[in-house]
Amino acid sequence: MSKTVAIAQSNYIPWRGYFDLINSVDELILYDDMQYNRRAWRNRNLIKSSRGTIWLTIPVQVKGKYSQKIKDTLVVDDSWARDHWKSILHNYSKAKYFSDYRELFEELYSLPDTFLSQINYHFIVAICRVLGIKTTISSSMDYHLAGDKTEMLVNLCKQAGATNYLTGPAAKAFINEDLFQQESISVEYMDYSGYREYTQLYPPFESHVSIIDLIFNEGPHATNYMTSF
Predict the structure, then answer these.
(1) How many helical (H) and strand (E) elements, i.e. helices and strands, does the chain have?
(2) Rounded mean pLDDT, 137-164
(3) What DSSP string describes 43-63?
(4) Burial of 163 (0-12, 13-18, 19+ CB in 10 A)
(5) What is the predicted pLDDT for the residue at 213?
(6) Per-residue pLDDT band at 39 (split at 50, 70, 90)
């Protein structure tokens, strides 16, 4: 029996391509044993506003912790959730389907999580439910980690029983496909091109914003603007 697995670091309220990746596999392994890196998507994302795109950023401990793992990264200011929710209310309260999802997201922003991984996990799982994605979401912490770089990915896939590994196109630059082939695991790459525009409150259209922009504007029709459905 075939099984397709993806391995990705957790991101904060990711864009729609992230969820197309999840929907294209049988299991997503959140690889938060990786080193936390600044200015990436782990703790921040973009939303639309009348002034253009703006960042929502979760403040985390970084001083003196340059080698810390994503799973060990702590939030440093509890007020971030209140501030983010206030910004979302301000910018999306007039979106067509905002009221349908207001209670869900308000509850997510009230959770007492202190680790970045926990925050990202809860948002990812909840958004998958909204989109009707049934993929199993696990954590690299559930598996035995061994090897380096590609070897680590191969070992995770083997433990998960994968016959296929799906990853983003950027991985072509560093992945060693031979190691997968030696274990009879095929490697495939996501294609993030061809995304359709949808209705946004504030033109011009911006594609690479958080999935919440699509959900609030298109509601139950959101998956019509994704590529894996």
Answers:
(1) 7, 7
(2) 95
(3) SEEEEEETTEEEEEE--B--T
(4) middle
(5) 98
(6) confident
